[in-house]
Every structure is written in C-alpha cells, then in structure tokens.
Amino acid sequence: MSSKRNRFRLGLEGKRAMMGYLFVLPFIIGLLTFFLVPLIQSVIFSFNALEVVEGGYSLRPVGTQYYKHALFEYISVENESQSFINLILLAIGNMASQVLLVTIFSFFAASLLNQKFRGRSVARAMFFLPVILMSGVILLVDSGDLLQSSMGLTQVDTSEGAGQAVELARVLLSTRLNSSFVDFIVSAVNRIYEIVSASGVQILVFLAGLQSISPSLFEASNIEGATAWENFWKITFPMVSPLILVNTVYTIIDTMTNSTSPVMQIIRNEAFSNGKYGLSAAMSWIYFIAVLVVVGIIGAIINKLVFYQE
Amino acid sequence: MSTVLENKKRQRKLPGKLLGGRRLTKYVLGQYAWSIIRGVIIIGICFLILYPTLVKILVSFMNEKDLYDVSIRYIPKNPTLENYKTVIKAMKFGEGFWNTFKLSLSTSIMQLIACTIIGYGFARFKFKGRGFLFALVIVTLIVPPQTIMIPLFLHFLNFDIFGIFELISGKPLNLLNSMAPFILMSMTGMGLKNGLYIYILRQFFRGMPKELEEAAYVDGAGLFKTFYRIMLPSAIPAMVTVFLFSFVWQWTDSFYSSLFLQSTRVLATSLSGVSYQVSQHFYNMTGVTTVLSPALSSMYTNTASLLVVLPLLIVYLFAQRYFVESIERTGIVG
Does any CB of chain A come closer than 8 Å to the CB of residue B269? Predict the structure, then answer.
C-alpha cells in the first residue's frame, strides 16, 4: 500500500518535472540553435579564413593568426590610430566611472521616487522616459550629432557646458581636494545627461527592491527610536544590496556591449564592411573574454559585500 | 491611578515629535524643507531628461536661415513644416513605418508569449538542471550579440532543418530580408535582450502566492487552465512592462535589423543614414548634387529621430500607467 502510494507521488513529481521541461522547451531549442551552435561556430571561424560561397561557406585553417593580429598588430584608423588592446582598456576605464555614477544616481533616484509626494506618478513616468528616448539607434545618432553637442548636451569641449564645469573645477580645486577626485566629479557633471539616460532600467530594479521591503521592519525600528539615517543604513541599504550587484552587472554589460562603443563598431565593420569574418570573430572573442573577466572580478568583489537574507 | 502613571511613562518614551511645542515645529519645518528640496531635484532631473528633446522639437521647426542666425537660440523666427515634409519623403517614412510596425508588433508579441511561458517554467517547476539552464539565460545576456552575428547571418542565409529543405528544393532556404529570422528567434526566447524579460517574468511569477495555484488545482483546474486563467491575468502588469520594453527596443534596434534586413526599409536603419537619403532626395528633385552642411544634416537627422520616436511616445503614454503600477507589484528582486 505504502509503496504504491510512494510510486504515485514520485510519478506526480516526475510529471511536474516533465511539464517544467515542456514550459522551458522553447528556450532550450533557441539556446541550442540560435546561441550555442553559433557560439561554437564563431570560435571555429576565429581560427579560420572564411569565404562565403554558393549555398554555404568554406573554411581554411590559419591557426591563431587572427588573434595575434588583433592583439599586437591591429591599429584602428577611425579611432586616432589606437591599437585594439588600447581601445578595450579605454572601454573598461569608461565603463568603470559610468557604472559607479549610474549605480549611485539610480539608487538616489529610486529612493526619491519611492517617497510619497504629489505628482509622483508623473515623475516616475518622466524618469523612465529615457528608456524610450535614448534607446538603440536614437542613442547612436545622437552621440555623433553636431547640433546636440553645440547646444552643450552631449560633449564636454563646447561653449556653455564646459564653461560651467571649468568654474566648478576651479572651486573644487581651491578646496585642495585630491585632483583625481575633482576630475571625477567634473566628468560626472559633464556627463549627467548620459548618466540619467542610461539609468532607466536600473531605477526600475532599485524601485522594485525598495517597494518589496516590508514596512514592519521600519515600524519596529521606529518604535526602538531609530533615526531616518539609521533606518537607511541598517535597513534600506542592506535590503537592496543584492540589487546593487544585479544593477552593476547589468550596467557593465550595457555600457560595454552598447553599439556606440568604438570596439563594437570595429568588430562590426571588420565583418560587414571589410569582409574579414575571421578577424572580427577573433576580436569579438577577445572582447567578450575581457568583459567576462571584468564582470567576474567586480561581481565577486560586490558579492562579498552584499547582505543576503538566507 | 496606576493607569495614569503608566500612560505618563509611555508618553515620556515616545519619540520627540509627539511631545508638541518646539520639537513639533522643527519636525514640520524639516519636512517642508525636504519636500521643497526634493521638488527642486525632481523638477531639475525631469528638465534634464526633456531638454534635449525639447531642443530637437524646436530645431525641427526652424528653416535653414534660422539655423545660422546667431540671435536665434531656441524659438524659430520662421517656423516651417518643410523639414518634416522633406524627411518623410526622403526616408519613405510611410513604408518604413509600416514595416517597422509589423516587425515590432509581431516580434514583441512572440517574445512576450515565449518569455512568459519560459519564465513560468523556471519559476514554478522543479526539474533537473533548472539552475544550470537559468544560468544560461543570464549568459545569453552577457555574450555581446556581435560574437554570434556572423554565424547567425550565415545560418539564416542558408537556413535548413536537418537538410529537409535541401532535400525538397535542392538548396537551403535564404531567410534574410524576411521577418522569419526575427520570428524564429523571438519564438525561442533568443531575441533582443530576451534574457532580461525571462528574468523579469520569472521573478514576478516567483513572487506570486503558491496558494493561488493550489486552490485552483483543488478546484479541479488542470495545469494549463491554472496557468492561463489564474496566473496570466495576475501577471498583466509585468507583461505590459515586458511588452513595452520589447516593442521599443525592437523599434529602435539597428543591430539585428541591419544584419537580417539589408534591403527592407525599417525606420531604425534608415534613420542612421538619413542625411544621405535627404541629399539623394534633393538630387532626384533638382538634378543637382547638393552637399548638406553639417548643421543642416544634423537638423534633418534630429527631425527624423523625432518622427521615429513619436509613435513610441504614444505607446508609452498608454502603457505607462501599467508600467508604473507594475513596479509597485513586481519583485524584480534577486
């Protein structure tokens, strides 16, 4: 009797598991055909010279030639004759300040939007507007736009925007702060539009996290006589800290794989303008590994600092 | 008597704000001050977000003279709709709009369906390799699409399933310049940023009370019925969010559209070359090669980008209520 019942229960669980596979089946199919196979092929392409022929393509093995070329010989004419490695390092440097600023700003904005005030829903709708206004090709077009930069919106070295920042830099330097710190602040001010517009999804994630903190935690701490400052550092901050990890990783990937990034444009142009498929594949692998290393290191560091409830 | 004493004790323990007098005014003043500061910050950020678009709108109504006139900064002296007319003709906006609309709508519906099903599968069923598969969802987000673009391109250039098409027609199918690559990738949760959507929906389903489903099972509903009668209606805010994201990002995506649709006109790809198209248009009209000055070509580009964004703003206007509401209820939380 009991063994029969046991078998029935196992069967039920097995059935649930089968249904689970059924639900994720589309993903498994897509993963194999449109992700893993192309991924492996792209490794193969990076070691071969590829030519498109009728009804397919032909490969001629060339060993690690493309990797060597990309790492040691390649010079990008469009980007002031920088080497590929330099461009990657530049991209990582850019990313570092961007990630820091975006994370801080989006956390700040989410805390603001989480408070109760009149017109909150309008403010929220506004803050997420950049998800639309600054996506994909619009961003691409704007970043190289003349009128925008002459209005002091996107770039630093133009009339008015620069004027304000110079003034700010002077004031900050006169306070004898560390000059690299001043540089950081000034660049933050100059890039504020870029930062605000790159923060849409991150604000969303933080806001959802803030909303999910149980109000009873705050009630309890208020009864104990905690101040707002203590509440923030002892409750709010630890509770959303896992999301700092999520947002940091998302921002790293978003900035580094953005199609406005020079490295991305080189990879694309090498393949489709110059027809060097193998070189492009090798470059994209080098870049991918660089991104992976960066994500791994930063993720591991933040993961140590994060507070998990379990 | 004793209760009065207790009450007095309790009063002394309460935080200052209830003790009236000076502390109260200080507290209220602080609140007022903060709400003013907050208002200024929020209005400032809103202005920052809107400013470039406002400038674009104003510039798009300027005529060429206004553009070079130093005395004009924002408000055009001779407002004109000429820019819009030119850009609409040069971009063949109607055709591009229709193609983009078809493409975005079909892919985002497909992606929504696929990601909802997949997300539900990850959230509510236990099976072997679930954690590993879900890690792969994140991996699909991390790998830059540029890494797999060439194989994908070749894949769709010579599309075949186990050699079936080659057997039937003698050669593999060329699916480029059709919507098929987008549909196929969307159906399998491999479209643009689909990993993010799967993640959002999985988190949402995970946050929903299990009792809801159990009650449905007890009442005799099967698994699929429970899914679409109980779970789906509650997931609408998250689904609207995902739909909005996928529609917008597909609309403005120039990466996949320029990869798979080289001869089909969609807005995203024609926007990046709009100044070239405008000078072509002038050439066709007058027979004289015109070189657009940088300022002028930038004005056309801005006008065109406004036209591309406008439909999205209308969609956002309707969707934002759900969108903002969904934030209150999703747990897009780890």
Answer: yes
